[in-house]
């Protein structure tokens, strides 16, 4: 993990990687900035109206006024919008990097470090899309179900990082191994390195919390919000580019090591491991 971490950092400075990172950045910046310019004021006013009509939030606003915290009351609506929008922006950034950059990064690292690694193509584009879609749906469901627990301070930090870590681990692992590994090899690597891969996802998910500070700054400094949105999106993009490179270096090295083992998974089919062992046992008995 440490070796792959430093290699990923070094590759982030490669001119080709820097240029490639501009593609999802431009796409995300245009989408987020456009939606913000069109609907930000409407969203803020709608949330403020909802806060005034809500008995609990209305009581909270009255309490803030009595305590002399009118400035804090003014930023509550923008902060609520930021909390709601941040997961969507993170998922969009992850998908943009996954679709627009990860295949190129896999090819670049594979040709440089592992030119002898055979391509078994255990995944297809459509299977990858279905896998990613199902992973996103499960992650969003987990976010919605755990929202009440976010009021507990420790869980508010732990739960989002775990959910983002799981989603990043699922999406990146499939994308990295789609061409190089067979289905059987991919599942075995996910089984062997489940906790390291999840840990890598949690770390990068925690790194993804940094742009939230920029979003919060935008709520506090509304005049600079249009400038701060692209900066936040750029940080999201860099985090997921680094994440993709980290997974590429780690998984291709793990695949190469596994194939060099005496009893490694060197099968060109998607036959389950149990069936393969049964066939080998019959051959030995014969």
Structural overview:
This protein has 286 residues and is mainly alpha-helical. Helices cover 82% and strands 0% of the residues. It has helices at 2-12, 15-53, 55-66, 70-100, 102-113, 125-146, 153-177, 183-192, 194-207, 210-220, 225-259, 273-285. Helix 4 (70-100) packs across helix 10. It is elongated.
Short description:
The chain is an all-alpha fold and 286 residues long.
Strand content: under 5%
Major sheet details: none
H/E topology pattern: HHHHHHHHHHHH
Number of strands: 0
Helix segment count?
Answer: 12
Mean pLDDT: 76
Low-confidence segments? 264-286
Tell me the structural class: mainly alpha
- Share of helix among residues? over 70%
CA distance, first residue to last residue: 43 Å
What quaternary form is this?
single chain
Return Rg in Å: 23 Å
Cα shape? elongated
